[in-house]
């Protein structure tokens, strides 16, 4: 399947944005990676630790505490299903306590998308339009958040876009941090800078003359903080709660979005950090390794120890690269010896249906293919040279590593 291609900068930040998975013994100014009394590695999976006191708490005790805050930040490793489960449980509990007074802000949507997010909240955006909106704002992976989106829609919970718009990002690239029209940016936090530079492979004295990826990180976080501050001062939400879902790096130690939002509008907030302390052997290639730096801060208010669980690998693949269009999925390339080639799919075919049912986008096609097994026959309806054509074939296992 076709995968959205990112620029070098964005590709780099896909690594940075996820909550770093802790590996080995790391010496921090606050020990145990920001947990002074007890390392989360000592806990059982699923246990929750109040980091400032070292007290293990129940989920109810966690919620009794964080629900008093105006803003609850929940970090994530983007591809960890367990982190999203925790986010879902916190949102559900908070909504039960404050029905009709909870909103959710997400890094995965840009601020200029808010009008469309409001239409979705009002039930005026189709599922296909919403999937396209997610893909345009974030990329692939909407299925990771599907339970959250379904719940927000069913309960009529507003969804806010937090991340900076592309025009602001381009303005930063062209003119640097001093460019007019950017949000107020604090580039002087020594701990945020030191940790960020360690991730970038730099160090605290790294030159900031001209554009540097660190500047983009600052813009992202200040834009998200600005969105939080605007929510807090919005007359429509005088006593509402805001749940912020963002990569763990943006909320850990509080020096990212939380501090930047507090600088604008002082308020009570809590940070919950879903944390993986050991990576399964089969997922070692996802581990972040970098030269750590000492941070004299708690990493969060609560650390929630979780397993690292990712979606299962794709079994069934057609063997095509696709581009999403409003009227179907355009075949860009057909791989040799693939299911697609055996079926007779051709370059520039416009895939519209699978087994007679319309497909919305590449992710939906991929998901529906996984419901089949090898040896089963599938039918693909395409538009070819302005006429509808149906092809079919028996699904076989593929050996090509980068095809569906």
UniProtKB/TrEMBL annotation:
Alphabetical list of CDD domains matching this protein: ChanN-like
Highest taxon, organism lineage: Bacteria
Chain ranges of the PDZ domain: 318-386
Transmembrane segments: none
Protein name per Swiss-Prot or TrEMBL: PDZ domain-containing protein
Biological source species: Nitrospina watsonii
Lineage of origin: Bacteria, Pseudomonadati, Nitrospinota/Tectimicrobiota group, Nitrospinota, Nitrospinia
């Amino acid at each position: 399947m076709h995968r959205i291609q990112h620029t070098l900068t964005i590709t780099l930040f896909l690594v940075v944005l996820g909550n770093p998975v802790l590996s080995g013994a790391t010496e921090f100014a606050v020990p145990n990676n920001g947990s002074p009394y007890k390392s989360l590695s000592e806990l059982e999976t699923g246990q929750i630790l109040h980091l400032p006191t070292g007290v293990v708490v129940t989920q109810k005790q966690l919620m009794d505490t964080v629900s008093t805050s105006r803003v609850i930040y929940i970090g994530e490793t983007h591809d960890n299903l367990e982190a999203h489960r925790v986010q879902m449980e916190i949102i559900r509990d908070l909504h039960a306590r404050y029905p009709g007074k909870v909103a959710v802000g997400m890094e995965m949507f840009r601020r200029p998308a808010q009008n469309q997010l409001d239409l979705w909240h009002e039930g005026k955006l189709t599922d296909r339009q919403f999937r396209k909106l997610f893909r345009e704002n974030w990329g692939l992976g909407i299925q990771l958040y599907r339970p959250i989106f379904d719940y927000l829609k069913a309960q009529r919970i507003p969804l806010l876009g937090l991340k900076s718009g592309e025009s602001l990002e381009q303005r930063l690239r062209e003119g640097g941090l001093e460019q007019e029209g950017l949000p107020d940016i604090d580039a002087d936090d020594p701990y945020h800078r030191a940790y960020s530079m360690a991730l970038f492979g730099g160090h605290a004295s790294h030159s900031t003359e001209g554009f540097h990826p660190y500047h983009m990180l600052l813009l992202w976080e200040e834009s998200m903080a600005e969105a939080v501050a605007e929510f807090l001062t919005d007359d429509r939400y005088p006593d509402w709660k805001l749940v912020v879902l963002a990569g763990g790096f943006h909320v850990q130690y509080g020096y990212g979005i939380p501090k930047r939002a507090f600088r604008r509008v002082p308020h009570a907030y809590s940070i919950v950090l879903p944390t993986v302390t050991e990576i399964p052997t089969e997922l070692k290639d996802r581990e972040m390794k970098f030269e750590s730096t000492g941070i004299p801060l708690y990493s969060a208010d609560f650390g929630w120890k979780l397993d690292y669980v990712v979606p299962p690998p794709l079994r069934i693949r057609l063997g095509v690269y696709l581009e999403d269009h409003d009227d179907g999925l355009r075949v860009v390339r057909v791989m040799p010896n693939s299911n697609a080639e055996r079926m007779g799919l051709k370059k520039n075919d416009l895939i519209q249906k699978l087994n007679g049912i319309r497909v919305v986008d590449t992710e939906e096609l991929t998901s529906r293919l996984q419901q089949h097994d090898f040896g089963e026959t599938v039918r693909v309806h395409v538009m070819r040279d302005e006429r509808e054509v149906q092809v079919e074939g028996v699904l076989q296992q593929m050996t090509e590593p980068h095809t569906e």
